[in-house]
Amino acid sequence: MELLHLNKVSMNYGRFRALNDISIEIRPGLFGLLGPNGAGKTTLMRILATLIPPKSGEINYGPLSWNNPNEVRRIIGYLPQKFSLYKHVKLREALNHIAVLKGIVDNREKEVDSVIEKVHLTAERDKKVGKLSGGMVRRLGIAQAILGNPKIIIVDEPTAGLDPEERVKFRRMLTHLGGRSMIIISTHIVEDVEVACDQVAVLHKGNLLAAGDIQSLKERARGKVFEIETLWEEFDKVSEQSFVVAAHRNGETYRMRILTDAVPPGAKPVEPTLEDGYLYLVRSGQ
Amino acid sequence: MRGKLNLLFDWRVMGVTAYFPLLVILALFGYISLRKDFSNVWNSLVPALEFTLPVFASWWSVFLFQDVLEEPGSETLFSYPITRRKLGVTRVAIFYAVYLILVLSLLLVLEWLSATSVFLPLAIQYGSESFFFAGLGFLAMVLTLDSGWALAVVLVYTSTQLLTGGQVLPLLNVFLLNKRVLPVSELLAPALINILAGAVLWGLAQYLFKTFRRFK
């Protein structure tokens, strides 16, 4: 399978620099784009979905260039952060219409049914879209994105607003789909990437801070993550001196997981997680 | 794969709002059919038709874009392999053509019932005005991204022009406000102006739609 190459992709909104010379190479499988709100993730997703052209830079998938958006649209599927189309029609009708818009001619109805099955919405196929739960609408969103078997699937904030159970289901579904296509997920939820993706990039304020596999991102925080048990009175002092990743109350004491360059007395080094690596990069990039 | 239009779905997705222009035309059909004497009707019928027929040409232009521009996530539609020309101006043109057929049918029935040669002059007058309004609805929707506001733009324009006899925006007034059927020779110039003004609205609306990036 081909690789997706982004070469010095930049985007401005007036004077605001939303993306700054982003260069990434994306392999088939699941790719996670991590970053806090305002990092430029949605802008990059919209550029990849051909909705907005970059100010400068090149994007290529094999011989196909993003300078030919009409050609690119034949090989991509896109699910934006918010999706709630065709509320007044039935789910199956909506997907059938989208299949027509996508130019699917052969075995259209069969393909629509197959996609409905893949996203586990068979029981809801005759329900109106407006009657579906938030999780089901997200799954419908994925269904429309995978119609026509696109080579690249772009999903912006896939689990935002979903309850924990739906989130787990959704991740599982994406992982399953990742075996056949290149799936690019943007999110600020580290767990989404940790569970589902094998490649990751971190965006912050329009800059690419890192790109690679999950392990390499974890390694960025090696030697910087510690656990410390402290009394309540010491909590504020530790928080001021280091960045608290997590804190758990244990009777009169707190067990804190901290990110710091200077080791506090009594702290034990621990194995870094993806969240540690991500937070370390974002804090370093500020 | 090249995306195709699905006009029946476009009709269905508009829901009950799709039927409003049909109801208006049907009501006018009923009004005309019930009249027995057409000798003194033109001074009220010509303005009445001018107040209703062109305005409703904008209705479908607005509601065709409710899911395309108004709903969150509608940006998805722009990622499909269908051109913005097809999604935009082509759909408006097809629905305008359907509306025009309805208007022409009404005028044919009017000519037949009244036994007066009114079809051609009224077709030129209302057809050109409807063309303008179809473009106005399209442009208002692309600018406001909200069917309620788009309808408000159309209604404000229509009501101010009609109430002031076209004095508020005389350069942009498409209404003739005539109380009799005018000869074709008197209609050609204003109809041409309406079509040119309409073409500007259609062109501008399609340009904005083609370059549209204010996704919700």
Task: Describe the protein.
The complex is a heterodimer of chains A (286) and B (216). Chain A is of the alpha/beta class and 286 residues long. In chain A, 34% of the residues lie in helices and 30% in strands. A six-stranded mixed beta sheet of chain A has the order 6-7-8-3-9-10, sandwiched between helices. Chain A has a four-stranded antiparallel beta sheet with strand order 2-1-4-5. In chain A, a hairpin with a 2-residue loop joins strand 4 (56-61) and strand 5 (64-65). The mean pLDDT of chain A is 88. Helix content of chain B is 69%, strand content 0%. Chain B is globular and about 55 Å long. The chains are: A alpha/beta (286), B mainly alpha (216). Chain A binds chain B through residues 46, 49-52, 70, 73-74, 76-89, 93, 96-98, 100-105, 141, 144-145, 148, and chain B through 1-6, 9, 12-13, 15, 67, 71-83, 213, 215-216.
Order of helices and strands of chain A: EEEHEEHEHHHEHEHEEHEHEEEH
Summarize the biggest pleated sheet of chain B.
Answer: none
Radius of gyration of chain B: 18 Å
Tally the helices of chain A: 10
- Strand order in space, largest sheet of chain A: 6-7-8-3-9-10
Shape of chain A: globular
Mean pLDDT of chain B: 92
Low-confidence stretches of chain B: none
Strand residue content of chain B: under 5%
Instruction: Give Rg of chain A in angstroms.
Output: 21 Å
Please tell me the overall pLDDT of chain A. Answer: 88
Distance between the termini of chain A: 37 Å
Q: What would you call the shape of chain B?
A: globular
Largest interface: A-B, 36 and 27 residues
Largest sheet composition of chain A? 6 strands, mixed
Helix/strand-derived category of chain B reads mainly alpha
Residue share in helix of chain B: 55-70%
Instruction: Give unreliable regions of chain A as ranges.
Output: none
Give the structural class of chain A: alpha/beta
Can you count the beta strands of chain A? Answer: 14
